[in-house]
């Protein structure tokens, strides 16, 4: 039994807003096994993004402990952890390929190696022909794919995704989810995903953690057993609907 | 807002306090940098000297006359160009060319043509102010949102009413900006002309002091002009802000 | 074979020159005010070498002032823009100072530094510094937080974040400032040469004015205009190359 890749115990986070103290997170504990696809759902403002930022090492906890791969985290570890944000945040003056290469470029990786690895990544996300295109020439979904490829560039073990498809239209969003699973099957990274959409959460994950409103804590952890690879029509199944309902009620009751 | 105030205060303290300190402690040759107190005392004496006031008056009147002539001319030109776009297309390259080249370079020619009297300095000030005000007035006319005009027409407004009640308030902010910039440029033009070749005026005084190494007098003059021009600029900017705030409030209504 | 448009421009240019020559020859405008093209060419022929030396002097002063103004302006702009508090405090102060007619400070520089190239370079730097610093500061401030969060998440060092992310993102704004500022540098150097100098194109323009050598005056002006235009063209090119990003930025993901 190897160490879980993420171990969070009794995590609490407070912010100072003006004179008041905001309790963003309180007593959050969970563990994630390597290779899992885990999603965190919860109402707006419940602290999901804050939790993600702590996992990324961007901010520190007020109470409790976070261990990534057995070690406490205090700063971003780009070789192990990468992030994909809601906004792809590509550099507008660089081509898609150059954007994917950027993290490796900063590390000083030699050009031929960079080029080869990143071209393969663009192929993986289905954008091989668009390698020399600029972000403003790509659609929102395509830009997000580039961001995902960039997230894979340093071959991390853990990918944190903060509502990456929230800004896309419904069709694109569904397709992206399906393609993401495809990529995940091929690369078997650990994915920690945040979303508002219960459907998205259930469709994508092995485990769904449901968070309460602020101060956020984990209400329940639900294992999703639908067989993999997941087809899109599982969304319409009765079993899917039951799980969705259950989560919906959990959140509704907690908000009351 | 608070930060801006802090900025100004810090700047004032550092500049004036530092100046006084450096002067008092004689960190620099006092012939090169006399302390602020000495300079302000000198300035105070100047302000009571009728000849100094006369020179100041000469400069002020040149600026005032130049601006009084340039502003209405330029605003009307801007309006005309804004209304008659085909004229604008012809004039645009000319205006932009003139704005691009440094007008100050033509000063010697100005003097060859007009001599070194009151007229020449006023004319120079006019040319400096004119083009900037034209550009801004033009932009002001073009900036009126068409829905505003259509709405007025629907309500049966007359031509005059459209001009005064709709066009004017809408254009005022940009026009005021143009006037403020025009004033700055006008002052620069007049001062430059005075410094270059003139017998009267504060610009000439300051240049003469520079030539004869009279540093305390120089600093006094620079201090005075700085304070005056910043005061004029800030006053005009305040007016701009008031007007644009008023306009956005009424426009939203 | 040249394009028809180019031929048209050439014909207009040639006709204008001919008309210009005629106007002066016929005495319609005094030849003291307007030099005929032939007089300008004559001036170039007789005193070409002197003008060339002066041209070199002015160019060196301008280049030196540009390099210093750019460096200082960009560094101050980046530093001030990086801290929200610092920016909020300094921006209003800087733009208020901008209203002061800088030319009034030149006599002080004359007294402190003499009338050689140094005072021109310093004045040039002062002229260009403010727009460059202000625009750079605006450009840095406007950078959205998500880029900085992204930089941290991929483990970029502070230097890398500034050089590879902040600087390119601020570049379009920076270049606007460089355009305005560099133009002001050129004007500043030439005008101060006209006021009081030992050499340079501005000096020659003034010198020949006092001798009523209008042909020489105009030749000097042509050289000065050439410098101003060259700088303008160079920076417009830079602006265009970098300007693509302004569109890109708005549509970026």
Number of strands of chain A: 10
- Shape label of chain A: globular
Rg of chain A, Å, rounded: 18 Å
Distance between the termini of chain A: 40 Å
CATH homologous group name of chain B: MetI-like
Give the low-pLDDT segments of chain B. none
Structural class of chain A: alpha/beta
Distance between the termini of chain B: 27 Å
**Biggest sheet architecture of chain B:** none
CATH class of the largest domain in chain A: Alpha Beta
- The second-level CATH architecture of chain B is Orthogonal Bundle
Annotation, overall tally of beta strands of chain B:
0
| Rg result of chain B | 22 Å
Q: How do the SSEs of chain A run, as a string of H and E?
A: EEEHEEEHHHEHEHEEH
CATH architecture of the largest domain in chain A: 3-Layer(aba) Sandwich
The CATH class of chain B: Mainly Alpha
Secondary-structure topology with pairs:
The complex is a heterotrimer of chains A (256), B (253) and C (253).
Chain A: E1 6-17, E2 20-32, E3 37-41, H1 48-56, E4 63-68, E5 71-72, E6 81-84, H2 96-107, H3 111-124, H4 140-152, E7 158-162, H5 170-187, E8 190-195, H6 198-204, E9 207-211, E10 218-223, H7 238-255
Parallel strand pairs in A: 3-8, 3-9, 6-7, 7-8
Antiparallel strand pairs in A: 1-2, 1-4, 4-5, 9-10
Chain B: H1 2-24, H2 36-47, H3 50-83, H4 85-100, H5 107-114, H6 118-142, H7 146-154, H8 159-196, H9 202-211, H10 215-252
Helix pairs in contact in B: 2-10, 3-4, 3-6, 3-8, 6-8, 8-9, 8-10, 9-10
Chain C: H1 4-25, H2 37-82, H3 84-97, H4 106-113, H5 117-141, H6 145-153, H7 158-195, H8 201-210, H9 214-251
